[in-house]
Amino acid sequence: MYFLYDNAGIKSKQYNIMLIIVEYFAIIMTKLERINAFIHVVEANGFAAAARKQGISTPAISRQITALEASLGVQLLKRTTRQVALTDIGLQYYQHCKNALTLLSDAEDAIANSRRDATGVLSILSNRHFAFAHLLPRLADFMQMNPKLHIQLQLAERFPDLSQENIDIVYGVSQEGPPDLVRRRIASTKYVLCASPSYLKQHGIPRTPADLVQHAYITHSMRKPLDVLIFADGRETYLEPALWLNDTQAMHECALQGMGVVKLHEYEVAESIKENCLTVILPDYPMPQISVYLYYRQSRYLQAKIRRFIDFYME
């Protein structure tokens, strides 16, 4: 079946489509205004404070919330004379709205950043060894390529809360991070057990994992668990640590001073082993390979400063 329109009919049809589009966008904008008012009330913890922030009257913002609740068919806020509290469904709705607005903001930032150089502050947390061995030697080149970008580097052996601490990238960690973060594998390593020749001369060389219970064990206070050794064959040996430290360089130094047996990443003690300052013990009982990662927050639209760092260092 064919439909024939004269010019007047075509123009009329186009006008009707435009009206539908305008009405549709008006509905969307009204909904967004109500959602925005809802978020302001929640975060300001009250209607009056939210109204002042938006520059409107308290009754006006109250009407927006009432209209939003009516359109959804649920109560989002519990109102009292002193405070405003979220209902259970209100909390879920607030979280979804915040996530949606964050995605929208990230998308706008990504578009803006793609049109200009990486700017702002890139905050990185790295363990000491990876910073000195891999990050710092190339940092000058990276900064020269991104002259408008400022770098904030923290050296620490912990896993931070990236959102709370406003950290963009965690670099060179073997710990498993939260599942909501993106991780990129940058290396692999394994732990080795070692002690100084002077310590082994005084206390003897352990021949089996069971022999370790007779030795002083130096461990890292961030390890979970910190009192067990797991070998590649699945064997587990539980030890009572003699010394806890929160820094691998300090653990390394204590081992060099003959204070006990230490478990450190192979790359951290390679030089000391090569120079016979430390001796690998139980070489017939190796530990499993583990991965070293780079972590960053998940985002559909990755900021230019983070993307450029990852691209540069993943080469």
CATH superfamily of the largest domain: Periplasmic binding protein-like II
How many domains? The number is 3
Kindly estimate the percentage of residues that lie in beta strands according to DSSP: 15-25%
Largest sheet: 9 strands, mixed
> What's the alpha carbon Rg, rounded to whole Å?
30 Å
How do the helices and strands follow one another from N- to C-terminus? HHHEEHEHEHEEHEEEEHEHEEH
CATH fold topology of the largest domain: D-Maltodextrin-Binding Protein, domain 2
Question: In whole angstroms, how far apart are the ends?
Answer: 60 Å
CATH class of the largest domain reads Alpha Beta
Percent helix, as a range, is: 40-55%
Q: Which structural category fits the helices and strands? A: alpha/beta
At CATH's second level, what is the architecture of the largest domain?
Answer: 3-Layer(aba) Sandwich
Label the overall shape. Answer: elongated
Total number of β-strand segments?
13
Figure out the total of helices. Answer: 10
Mean pLDDT: 84
Spans of at least 5 consecutive residues whose pLDDT stays below 50 are 1-5
Organism: Aquicella siphonis
Keywords: DNA-binding, Transcription, Transcription regulation
Family: Belongs to the LysR transcriptional regulatory family.
GO molecular function: DNA-binding transcription factor activity; sequence-specific DNA binding
